[in-house]
Amino acid sequence: MNEPVPKKPVRHLLGLSGGKDSSALAIYLRDKIPEMEYFFADTGAELPETLEFIDLLEDYLGKKIERLNTNKNFDYYLKLHNNFLPSARQRWCTINLKLIPFEEFVGNDEVISYIAIRADEPSRQGYISKKSNIRTSMPFREGGITKEDVVHMLEASGIGMPKYYDWRSRSGCYFCFFQRKEEWVGLQEHHPDLFEKAKTYERSDSGGGKIFTWNQAGSLDEIVLSASIKKDSIAKTPLQKKLIDTLANCSEDENDDGCMICMK
Question: What CATH number has the domain bearing residue 39?
């Protein structure tokens, strides 16, 4: 008689973004769930500070952080989408570089996926898989952990906050379309090479007359010009005033879900 195949143990997975919340959750659960598996979906367009922080966190956790997307990055999928930039309504980058790699990493295994949504974020849901073998756990929400607690965890661990928080509100690609206008200015100031590279992705459709930019407010050059005019208070010409008004009146959603697996 054939022996029954032993059932595989449930896998515990935590996706890291290089942001404060997912990093604090890893610290919070390190000793509580020693069998935890950590992964980082590298888009190939990460900030240097993000990659540095992931390495630092890996040392602290004492366990390898699995890097996903080792062969296919943002540029690969951009070509597959005919060079049309992703947007809040067309998040093909999130699907191809976050969600699909995660579900491939899981396979058919029974998994508990730990999501770093805090107790003071009642409206956020994050990524909830429709696959029956993936269950979601939100320890921070269940434990009443708030942003203040998260910052304390990072400081108490000795790791501290990721350096990009000095000028940016979230982790993610350096050209993330969820960035606020002032964050684009911050990118230019802190990483002018990456800002120039982000500009090369913007383009005009000479046939249809459309302009494809990262931000609905205008091109990156227009955004930075507007910020410079405001800063120096030299908006004297009607054209300059019109540009400032246009950019200032473009709304930006502060409550978006960003990259749904690991945005913060």
Answer: 3.40.50.620
Q: Are residues 157 and 102 part of one domain?
A: yes
Domain residue limits at 231: 181-248
Chain segment 105-159, per-residue pLDDT in tens: 999 999 999 999 999 998 887 666 778 999 999 999 999 999 999 999 999 999 9
Is 22 inside any structural domain? yes
Give me the residues paired with residue 12 across strands: 112
The first and second tokens of residue 17, run together, are 């973004």
The H or E element containing residue 131 is none
Q: What is the pTM of this model?
A: 0.82
Residues 42, 111 within the same domain: yes
Bridge partner list, 137 = 114
Asked if residue 90 belongs to a domain, the reply is yes
Question: Residue 94 burial (CB < 10 Å; 0-12/13-18/19+)?
Answer: buried
In the chain, count H helices and then E strands. 11, 7
- Whether 261 contacts 99, CB under 8 Å: yes
Residues 95 and 198 in one domain: no
Report in angstroms the alpha-carbon separations of 24 from 40, 79, 135, 140, 171: 15, 35, 21, 10, 14
